[in-house]
């Protein structure tokens, strides 16, 4: 097993006084005025039942790791001695429980010191499961050791995932500001590591790589939104160039292709239909002027299919009839015919 495991070594048959190992031994790792480590683990695992399931599995693995037939020759089990310290299994309980408590406090404080991990409940739950998986029991020896290197990597990965989640929830510019500030901090730490020839315990280079990738991703998003804005602006500009002849041709081709009814078919008459149309579509003109232009194209083919209408028909084909294939086909035929007319 190529893992660097750490734990508490206890001498065989160590004499001890049983105490609550949590309060004094781990005081430096517990934040003031906060709940105990087990309460934090319950919170991290989302439900008390999840916590009980993990605790039960841990206890079962602990008992399975004890030396075989440990009860044999145990003065306490035979009833010859009553002191807790006379149990053959007690040293194993102390070693395993102490190791668990110590690294549980370590783990809780890592989480509480990284609010982005703590605030991401999904990633925190997955990370807490990984924390339990970092304990390695040695069967027949009754001891447990902890893979601290793996936990640090799991925490780093959970941090990256939770930061990614947070960056998605805020404005792009705010995300860039956060990343730039953090990169400055990491640059300073990297310089200090070089000056004092310190080992990179905080994976500075890996953090910088992650943040630079996020920076590039956000910049691509910003560029995309900029392009999208320009496209919308361009479309809006195109819309503002639509003239009354364009509208008249547009509705004519829709009517001729059976997409909409002729104005004459309106129950209240042609002029009312035109008035209703220009109001609904926010066309800036009067019903009388629109009718005049429309009638010119509708009732006089030579006015519609003419060389001076090539630009108008082309505009309607390319910008207004994209969603109406039959109308577009008719307009293209007339555009081709109009191009052949004498000026």
TrEMBL record:
It comes from the Bacteria. This is Uncharacterized protein.
